[in-house]
């Protein structure tokens, strides 16, 4: 199906093209580009213009550029604009303007991607759904997600993130959501903010983009909930365990690979299930159902469909590593939560690990933790503070990675101290020093800490299967 014609893209961007073309998708990476895609020559670590010739050779329908790249003929299918990012933003705005989709915007310090994926699952069967396949939530990710949105979309879920003040409002105004969700406000990116309250104000900037009559969905359990409510429009709903929340979580019962949730809304009982253990997932699921309902979806169908959701790799996915094909019970239970970390998400992951049963009677609960980045002047205390986290009472060993996590390592009782290393690569070389058969283990750290190396090293000890 055609996503963009040259005439539509020219009208949207004010650019020029020497030849007509039709694009069926939008790509920023030649490694994943599909034949028929428009290639967007963004400049990041490398200048995308250096890859235009390769993109066209790989079947790109056209390329969005700010100049004719060297080695590319002037009559090639190029959409030439003054600035590539500005051109992509214009395509995003035009795509948003031409659709009648109900748009849900999701932001928060933790849980943006999980909630986005829950919404994708919950809305299944109720219309054509559009959402980014990855965490495309920044200054280029949001316009890219919008530019990829087909005209006939019924529901769109747009994830909106930030690292600094002033980033969310322009992205929200571009997305123009009918429903805006704030999952949680927590200490994250404190290098760029003076306080958690300032982070809350930035998250609340998503309301600046709400369509007239749009609905704000707000977590009622936060220290900053009152501030968020004061910044929200009058059409707002709350979710959480707090008495009086519009979407009230009454109970979340976690098993080894699922969470069964009991809630109420407007006096009606609500029961739903999620394919992962953890109260934080229960909260995201409740926010998802509140948003789906506010967007006009059938709540009952959404609650049933949500049962098919399970976390993707790196975001709490649980798998069992068989170590001996002749003894299938011999293995390691692994929580892959390696994608990113801040104090709220690490605390939630420790809670899940503490509640998990090791697969063997002599097995241990083992945490492998990497540095949490961008926490500002309180970073030392925030890392060391996990030594007294309630979940630590149920965790037998903690391995730490990075100079910041060394503060936690030194604060731990000697009995819980595992190994410390400056980098993930150092520990990944010796996975058998980290875990043993019968253990349940969780790996988590900021993306730059490359905790996936640890996950891969443990996985490669045997044969991995998803827990169900």
Automatic annotation (TrEMBL):
Molecular function terms from GO: ATP binding; UDP-N-acetylmuramoyl-tripeptide-D-alanyl-D-alanine ligase activity; UDP-N-acetylmuramoylalanyl-D-glutamyl-2,6-diaminopimelate-D-alanyl-D-alanine ligase activity
Just give the chief location class.
Answer: cytoplasm
Localization, UniProt? Cytoplasm
Superkingdom, natural source:
Bacteria
The Mur ligase central domain extends over: 106-292
Q: Does the keyword Transcription regulation apply?
A: no
Q: In which pathway does it act?
A: Cell wall biogenesis; peptidoglycan biosynthesis
**UniProt entry tagged with the keyword Cytoplasm:** yes
**Keyword tags:** ATP-binding, Cell cycle, Cell division, Cell shape, Cell wall biogenesis/degradation, Cytoplasm, Ligase, Nucleotide-binding, Peptidoglycan synthesis
**Which one GO biological process term can you cite for this protein?**
cell wall organization
Could you give one GO CC term from the UniProt record? cytoplasm
Question: What's the protein called, per UniProt?
Answer: UDP-N-acetylmuramoyl-tripeptide--D-alanyl-D-alanine ligase
GN (gene name): murF
């Amino acid at each position: 199906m055609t996503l963009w014609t040259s005439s539509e893209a020219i009208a949207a961007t004010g650019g020029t093209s020497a030849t007509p073309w039709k694009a069926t998708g939008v790509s920023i990476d030649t490694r994943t580009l599909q034949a028929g895609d428009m290639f967007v020559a963004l400049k990041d670590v490398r200048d995308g213009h250096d890859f235009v010739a390769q993109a066209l050779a790989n079947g790109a329908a056209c390329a969005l550029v700010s100049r004719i790249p060297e080695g590319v003929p002037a009559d090639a299918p190029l959409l030439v604009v003054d600035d590539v990012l500005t051109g992509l933003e214009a395509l995003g705005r035009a795509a948003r303007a031409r659709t009648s989709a109900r748009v849900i915007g999701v932001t928060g310090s933790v849980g943006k991607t999980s909630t986005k994926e829950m919404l994708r699952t919950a809305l299944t069967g109720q219309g054509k759904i559009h959402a980014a396949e990855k965490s495309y939530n920044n200054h280029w990710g949001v316009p890219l997600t919008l530019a990829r949105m087909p005209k006939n979309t019924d529901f769109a879920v747009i994830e909106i993130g930030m690292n600094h003040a002033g980033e969310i409002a322009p992205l929200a105004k571009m997305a123009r959501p009918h429903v805006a969700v704030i999952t949680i406000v927590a200490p994250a990116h404190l290098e760029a903010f003076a306080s958690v309250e300032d982070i809350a104000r930035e998250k609340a900037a998503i309301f600046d983009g709400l369509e007239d009559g749009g609905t704000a969905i707000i977590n009622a359990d936060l220290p900053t909930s009152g501030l968020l409510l004061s910044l929200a429009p009058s059409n707002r709903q709350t979710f959480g365990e707090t008495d009086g929340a519009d979407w009230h979580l009454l109970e979340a019962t976690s098993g080894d690979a699922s969470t069964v949730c009991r809630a109420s809304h407007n006096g009606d009982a609500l029961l739903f299930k999620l394919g992962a253990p953890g109260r934080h997932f229960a909260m995201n699921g409740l926010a998802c159902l509140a948003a789906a309902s506010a967007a006009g979806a059938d709540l009952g169908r959404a609650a049933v469909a949500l049962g098919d959701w399970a976390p993707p790799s790196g975001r709490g996915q649980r798998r069992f590593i068989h170590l001996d094909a002749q003894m299938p019970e011999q293995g390691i239970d692994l929580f892959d939560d390696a994608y990113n970390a801040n104090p709220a998400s690490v605390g939630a992951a420790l809670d899940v690990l503490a509640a998990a049963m090791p697969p063997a009677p002599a097995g241990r609960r083992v945490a492998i933790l990497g540095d949490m980045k961008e926490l500002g002047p309180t970073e030392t205390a925030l890392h060391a503070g996990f030594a007294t986290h309630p979940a630590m009472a149920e965790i037998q060993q903690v391995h730490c990675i990075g100079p910041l996590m060394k503060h936690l390592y030194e604060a731990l009782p000697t009995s819980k101290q595992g190994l410390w290393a400056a980098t993930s690569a150092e520990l990944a070389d010796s996975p058998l020093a980290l875990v043993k058969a019968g253990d349940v283990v969780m790996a988590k750290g900021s993306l730059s800490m490359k905790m996936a190396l640890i996950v891969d090293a443990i996985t490669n000890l045997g044969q991995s299967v998803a827990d169900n």
